[in-house]
Design brief:
CATH class of one domain: Mainly Alpha
Structural class: alpha/beta
Shape: globular
Bound molecules: zinc ion
Helix content: 40-55%
CATH superfamily of one domain: Ubiquitin activating enzymes (Uba3). Chain: B, domain 2
Strand order of the largest sheet: 3-2-1-4-5-6-9-10
Radius of gyration: 30 Å
């Protein structure tokens, strides 16, 4: 059987000038997720490029601080929906365009697979990892191309994700939120950020926060003695891979052991009640007592743990009396009394009372001590109701003052450079100032890649990265779009859509008929948001009972948000080293003819429910090398469907239904192999080139996904894809190397 030859790709960027392509742009349906910094620029650039059918989703409302870069918005829009306003404004200067806004969360059930299938392109301008992963999965399920983007200050990136051809958004590990080893924070800080995190997460919480927030960290430190633990904030968009690595690996075993003993000693010596203000204790005396403990006694004790200081100088203790003579302490009391009389409340500021008005100027050690004492006392005097439940907030001036002073004092113990209030605030709040120009460049790149996809110039697709300092004289660096990673937890296996009545079907029905019978799972582990269900060995009796109690409950009413429409249920079987995501599509009108079992499962079933072979890579090879004739036919059919842009994956499901009931187990396994094998070819070819041609960040996946790796992106067509891939690999330097890159002077130093 001869596979149809893939038509040659149109030339890029020549295709842009053809009339047909201009029409294609005009009629293309585009979904923009996000109408913020990137989204505003993107919407503008899309209509300027000729796109006319755009839908935009954004949950947020406009804030004053957005106005310096989200140029679709004006002052009178503050408080209004970003999506609605952006749509109206763009429509205003491009009346011919149809812009449909949704002031909503993209994770809502109504934005389901069917919704995504309505679009030719999905373009992300999102600011959080969770939503980006969600959109990635829906694009994979709906088989729609996704152009992803992110910016952080001067850094930015645009990546292209096409199922089965390029890696999905989750193929490469995203930088975990930055973490710092607890023992570094507690014992051996050597960077400003270490003392800031210590001040914010350890000292602030201990003095003003909820008691459990303190004990959590202390327990962890005592227990792990230097394992990384405390998380430093958030999803930094963009610039991925550069700063993502945790610093935990830097420590030697001896240092860990030493730190463990130091931490254990400290934990023993520490009585948390020491940090509580005693009955009748004047606020400033309390603050001075804390100072003496934290900056004098504790530092002296740490300095005595010799093992810690073999490779670095020990810290020097501070003495309050030297930093702040009694006369100055008396002045603090007067300032505190003044604030109490004025009823300063939430607006109280130690800096204001001390006349430290310049936020960019570093304080002297004496000023740091004064701010620390006064800020601590102010909390107890003018904001006493918050003590015991406060959480650090970068917009709370008093909290920032306290953290700045506390951090600087600790820095001076360790010889670490001190920070101004402004800088400390940025570090503590993890603020990276957004830059309009970066958003504009990134939006232009998104549209460029979108046009290539639309034109079918897939060999010209590029992932593009914006850097803050030049790399090979370039600030904008393109890279050939990467191959899917076969072992990806998300795209390395097939996604299924389950049409089922979530109101009436109990969990027992799902587990029995779908998970065990249809998917041949032995020991199911089901996860979806806050919902968890497990079976198999190793469960405690009470756990088993708790899970059994869930079985009669309807899917929609299960704990943790339920399994309603749009929910993505992660099904795993540790015993089989296999897993799959099942997208729930609530359907009430299933006829007994179409769905004799009460549900319809759509999507090619993945490969290999056999137990994982001892050596995982070897196992993958075997699976990939044996596509049956049936699988090839299916793969060919899938290609035809791909070309038409329409999906009829229910076809393969119908086959299942016909065959069911005969020698069930053996049949099922065979079907799975047949249906999955076609996709495995693509995945295997991808693996062969992918592994040499790029470096991957650390593999975050555990070993739960070993066998799932075989079931590649879906849709099949291994040979054709292989050919295209080869072309992509060997293609001459792309036009956008000349057009799309800013080449700047080497001499420039930033
Ligand atoms: Zn992936």
């Amino acid at each position: 059987m001869e596979a149809p030859k893939a038509p040659a790709e149109p030339s890029w960027p020549g295709v842009l000038r053809t009339k047909e392509f201009k029409e294609k742009i005009k009629s293309a349906k585009v979904l923009c997720v996000g109408a913020g910094g990137i989204g505003c620029e993107l919407l503008k650039t899309l209509v300027c490029t000729g796109f006319r059918n755009i839908e935009v989703i954004d949950l947020d409302t406009i804030e004053t601080s957005n106005l310096n870069r989200q140029f679709l918005f004006r002052k009178h829009h503050v408080g209004q929906s970003k999506a609605n306003t952006a749509a109206a404004v763009v429509q205003g200067f491009c009346p011919g365009a149809s812009i449909t806004p949704y002031h909503a969360n993209v994770k809502e059930g109504r934005f389901d697979v069917d919704f995504f299938r309505r679009f030719d392109l999905v373009l992300n301008g999102l600011d959080n990892l969770e939503a980006r992963r969600h959109v990635n999965r829906l694009c994979l399920a709906a088989e729609r191309p996704l152009v992803e983007s992110g910016t952080a200050g001067y850094l930015g990136q645009v990546t292209v994700h096409i199922k089965g051809r390029t890696e999905c958004f989750e193929c490469s590990a995203k930088p975990a939120p930055k973490t710092y080893p607890i023992c570094t924070l507690r014992n051996t800080p050597d960077k400003p950020i270490h003392t800031i995190v210590w001040a914010k997460d350890l000292l602030f919480n201990r003095l003003f926060g909820a008691p459990d927030a303190v004990s959590d960290l202390d327990d962890q430190a005592a227990r792990e003695g230097g394992q990384p633990g405390k998380q430093e904030e958030g999803d930094k968009e963009g610039g991925e891979g550069k700063e993502g690595a945790a610093e935990a690996g830097e420590q030697s075993e001896e240092a860990r052991a030493a730190a463990a003993s130091a931490a254990a000693a400290a934990a023993q010596a520490e009585d948390p009640s020491f940090f509580l203000r005693r009955d009748g204790e004047p606020a400033l005396e309390y603050a001075a007592r804390v100072f003496g403990r934290v900056y004098t006694t504790d530092i002296q004790r740490l300095a005595e743990v010799k093992e810690l200081w073999e490779k670095r100088p020990p810290p020097r203790a501070l003495h309050l009396d030297q930093l702040l003579p009694p006369a100055e302490r008396a002045a603090l009391q007067a300032a505190l009394d003044k604030a109490a009389e004025a009823g300063a409340g939430a607006g109280a500021s130690a800096c204001k009372l001390l006349g430290l008005s310049n936020a960019s100027q570093k304080w002297t050690p004496g000023q740091n001590a004064a701010v620390l004492l006064l800020a601590t006392a102010l909390y107890h005097t003018v904001r006493p109701s918050e003590v015991g439940s406060a959480a650090f907030d970068k917009d709370d001036l008093l909290a920032v003052e306290f953290v700045t002073a506390a951090s600087n004092l600790r820095s001076s113990c360790y010889g670490i450079p001190e920070q101004s209030l402004f800088d400390a605030k940025g570090m503590a709040g993890n603020i990276i100032h957004a830059i309009a120009t970066t958003n504009a460049v990134v939006s232009g790149l998104i549209v460029t890649e979108a046009l290539k996809i639309l034109a079918g110039c897939l060999g010209s697709l590029r992932n593009t990265f914006l850097y803050e300092v030049p790399v090979d004289r370039r600030l904008v660096v393109p890279a050939t779009a990467w191959e899917p990673r076969p072992s990806c937890m998300v795209c390395g296996k097939t996604q299924l859509t389950l049409r089922i009545n979530t109101k009436t079907t109990p969990l027992s029905g799902l587990v029995g008929a779908v998970i065990k019978k249809r998917l041949a799972v032995n020991s199911p582990n089901l996860m979806c948001g806050g919902f968890l269900y497990e079976e198999g060995e190793g469960l405690e009796e009470d756990e088993e009972a708790a899970y059994a109690a869930l079985l009669p409950r309807p899917l929609r009413d299960l704990p943790g948000g339920g399994l309603g429409h749009g929910a993505i249920l992660t099904v795993q079987d540790q015993s089989q080293h296999w897993g799959v995501d099942v997208i729930i599509a609530h359907t009430e009108d299933l006829s007994p003819d179409d769905a004799p079992e009460g549900f319809i499962l759509e999507g090619a079933l993945p490969t290999a429910s056999a137990p994982a072979p001892p050596e995982q890579d070897g196992g993958k090879q075997q699976q990939q090398e044996a596509p049956s004739a049936a699988a090839k036919r299916k793969a060919a059919a899938a290609v035809a469907e791909d070309a038409a842009g329409v999906l009829h994956i229910t076809d393969s499901d119908d086959d299942d239904d016909e065959q069911e009931g005969k020698e069930e187990e053996g049949q099922q396994q065979q079907q799975q192999q047949q249906q999955g094998a076609g996709t495995s070819v693509a995945a295997g070819a991808a693996a062969a080139t992918a592994n040499d041609s790029r470096k991957r960040p650390l593999d975050e996946d555990g070993d739960g996904d070993g066998a799932a790796a075989g079931g590649g992106g879906g849709g099949g067509g291994g040979e054709e894809r292989g050919a295209k891939r080869a072309k992509a690999e060997t293609a001459p330097a792309p036009a956008e190397d000349k057009d799309g890159c800013i080449v700047i002077d080497d001499d420039e130093d930033d």
